[in-house]
């Protein structure tokens, strides 16, 4: 059976996760409060819906608790990111990945049960620096 993913927040990060998962043949439910963003993803993912990640009843009615993996990609609104993560943890979702804005945000997310916390800009900076160094080592 295909794995089911839900992505909450369709900015650059959440959007590229949606595209990549869909290209890999996964079932993806894309959620955002912004109707225009949702419309942009309607032809890319399995389902795209306008909903608020902090609205427990909305997530319940979408069946989010049954998804294999939920990615919280809400950016600037740290409060919404934390509340959404808390709801998912209370649902008992088995894999919750969350994008953090800063170290304090990361600390809170870990405390409330996020399984993986990512900082895309920081993580990519580290990866690129490692690539540059290993390339230079090979060049000598
Ligand atoms: P990126 O760097 O990935 O582009 P960002 O860090 O700039 O994102 P935002 O643009 O603030 O982040 O948020 C990402 C998306 O999350 C936006 O499309 C926004 O509409 C959506 N979003 C914000 N709050 C909620 C919420 N409560 N529920 C669902 N989606 C939300």
UniProtKB/TrEMBL annotation:
Signal peptide: none annotated. It comes from the Bacteria. Residues 2-118 form the RCK N-terminal domain. One of its GO terms (molecular function) is monoatomic cation transmembrane transporter activity. GO terms for biological process: potassium ion transport. This is Potassium transporter Trk. The chain holds residues 1 to 140 of 221 of the full protein.
């Amino acid at each position: 059976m295909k794995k089911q993913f839900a992505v909450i927040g369709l900015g650059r990060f959440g959007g590229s996760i949606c595209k990549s998962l869909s290209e890999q043949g996964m079932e993806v439910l894309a959620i955002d409060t912004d109707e225009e963003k949702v419309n942009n993803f309607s032809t890319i993912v399995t389902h795209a819906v306008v909903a608020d990640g902090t609205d427990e009843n909305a997530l319940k009615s979408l069946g989010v608790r049954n998804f294999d993996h939920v990615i919280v990609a809400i950016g600037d609104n740290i409060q919404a990111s934390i509340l959404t993560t808390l709801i998912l943890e209370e649902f008992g979702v088995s894999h919750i990945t969350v994008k953090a804005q800063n170290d304090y945000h990361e600390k809170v997310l870990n405390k409330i049960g996020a399984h993986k916390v990512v900082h895309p800009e920081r993580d990519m900076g580290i990866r690129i620096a490692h690539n540059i160094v290993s390339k230079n080592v090979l060049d000598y």
